[in-house]
Amino acid sequence: MGEASATGPGGASTERVGAAGDGVIVTRALTKRYRGGQLAVDGLDLTVPAGSVFGFLGPNGSGKTTTIRMLMGLIEPTSGTAHVLGRPVPRSARAVLPRVGALIEGPAPYGFLSGRDNLLRYDAADPTADPRTRRARVAAALDRVGLTAAAGKKAKAYSLGMKQRLGLAAALLRPRGLLVLDEPTNGLDPQGMREIRALVRELASDGTTVFLSSHLLDEIEQVCTHAAVMARGRLVVQGPVADLAAGARGRLVVTTPDPADAARVLEEQGVADVVVTEERVTGELPGRDLAEVNAALVAAGVRVRGFGAERASLEDAFVALTGEGFDVAG
Ligand SMILES: Nc1ncnc2c1ncn2[C@@H]1O[C@H](COP(=O)(O)OP(=O)(O)OP(=O)(O)O)[C@@H](O)[C@H]1O
């Protein structure tokens, strides 16, 4: 897929629609160096397939927000290109952004207005929105995010999860080709997180492409079909989530009330990278028959309660690819 657009002589745009290929978001060598010299995004080549729920994963400070701000035309890249829904940004941001629903900063509804009145007001600020169908549009959006029953309550009485849903409802007031959600579950309690994740899955099930950033590996595994992993401004890997995790080997896991003995025996058996966490001892899967390793544990008097190979997680893939832990504290 070629570089996407060109400006003809005299500044006439010879932009080719769809030149960015099938991706809903496509970046090529996208780079942002801030004025202070910080290289926040370094040569990013991202392709977000149509219809995917795409997780944009990385520890704090890895460049996710900077990338999203470039995609939304909020800041200029230092170099490289970005296309959203087939159009170059920031150049065509005004044309493309009405088709993008975004939840970028935390939700900030007017607390003294009800959820419904917040949406009515928001819709009224859109000059292209037909006032005659406003109420129906707002009711449909409230219904979509499960806020119909609470629609008459003042937003200041909403939980953070409800405010987040209200933000999503605002993003859903008009048809969207793409939803961009920056850390949509940040600050929510486990119940709120579950609700937002279920909602994202539901939104995606009718074909809307969803691009969501997160620093939570398990969130990406639960919600996303595809993911890209960032570390220090660079893309580490991208692809279908199932393939990413499969690229890393699983680990041997032994559950036992005798972890110290188990760790010693595993090391004697040639198991590398043995890690003890309370009653769980894990290590790299050895290249030999696991039955022999298990027999050696039992022969040494280790009381084995659980023994097996655990499927590799995205976290294992990240560690294998970067040689670093996935430190969410950044
Ligand atoms: N306006 C700015 N000026 C200078 N440096 C910045 C600016 N914004 C971000 N940075 C730096 O760029 C790097 C990437 O930051 P960015 O916010 O994009 O990361 P992130 O992955 O979104 O992290 P977080 O989840 O904490 O927002 C960091 O080192 C950050 O300190």
UniProtKB/TrEMBL annotation:
This is ABC transporter ATP-binding protein. Residues 25-257 form the ABC transporter domain. The keyword Nucleotide-binding applies. It comes from the Bacteria. Coiled coil: none annotated. Belongs to the ABC transporter superfamily. SMART domains: AAA. Keywords: ATP-binding, Nucleotide-binding, Transport. InterPro entries: AAA+_ATPase (IPR003593), ABC_transporter-like_ATP-bd (IPR003439), ABC_transporter-like_CS (IPR017871), P-loop_NTPase (IPR027417). It comes from Streptomyces prasinosporus. GO terms for molecular function: ATP binding. The keyword Manganese does not apply. SUPFAM superfamilies: P-loop containing nucleoside triphosphate hydrolases.
